[in-house]
Amino acid sequence: MPPEPAPVRVVLAEDGVLLREGLAGLLGRFGFEVVGAVGDAEALKGAVAELAPDLVVTDIRMPPGFTDEGLRAAVELRRAHPGLAVIALSQYVEQSYASDLLDSSDGKRVGYLLKDRVVDVEEFVANVRHVLDGGTVVDPQVVRQLLRRRRDPLLRLSEREREVLARIAEGHSNAAIAKLLYVSEAAVGKHVGSILAKLDLPPADDTNRRVLAVLAYLRTGREQ
């Protein structure tokens, strides 16, 4: 029998001890190997340099300033290590650096999730695995914050098209969107085609490419 693949090596960065230990236990339960758990951004950068993890899961606001230290560290790490998977966890949407994080390494192997909206353990783990497989996972609230920066073009979209757009940015396929919105898959396909046309985005069948196309569109407005 072929040898089992090595477990995914993870470094956690979270200043709250209980949440840090809880995340470590959760990931360990699902077969991940937590090789480092730190409480500030500088320690995170040091742990990545020393331990060479496959994945970083980091809080956004950490000591000493409790502003955006974790997010800035994540952006730096992605620039230094383009293949490093990163998931940012936050109570808030830090818009400027959120765009920079999603822009790093062509937007692949990255996630931005809001802590209060992570309510299903298995869904969270599925999101982690999706990011490790090269995907992009973005909380819909983050998407809405970024959408506000490009408000004028989005006025072209109907309310239903904006709903579908948010689901696309979450990484859902047409079939999954149809189930979530209680409409037919054919109807979703028409909405997707209309959205891509109205936003001047190239059509693509691959779900992750659709997510990247939407995020690329959103990022173009980050200086506006």
TrEMBL record:
Keyword Transcription in record: yes
4-aspartylphosphate: which positions carry it? 59
Give one GO molecular function term: DNA binding
Enumerate the SMART domains for this protein.
HTH_LUXR (SM00421), REC (SM00448)
Give one GO biological process term.
regulation of DNA-templated transcription
Record-linked Gene3D superfamilies: 3.40.50.2300
The source's domain of life comes to Bacteria
Where does this protein come from, organism-wise? Murinocardiopsis flavida
Keywords from the UniProt entry? DNA-binding, Phosphoprotein, Transcription, Transcription regulation
**Where does the Response regulatory domain start and stop, copy by copy?**
9-130
Q: Which InterPro entries match?
A: CheY-like_superfamily, NreC/VraR/RcsB-like_REC, Sig_transdc_resp-reg_receiver, Tscrpt_reg_LuxR_C, WalR-like
The chain positions of domain HTH luxR-type read 150-221
Alphabetical list of Pfam families matching this protein: GerE, Response_reg
Protein's name according to its UniProt entry: LuxR family two component transcriptional regulator
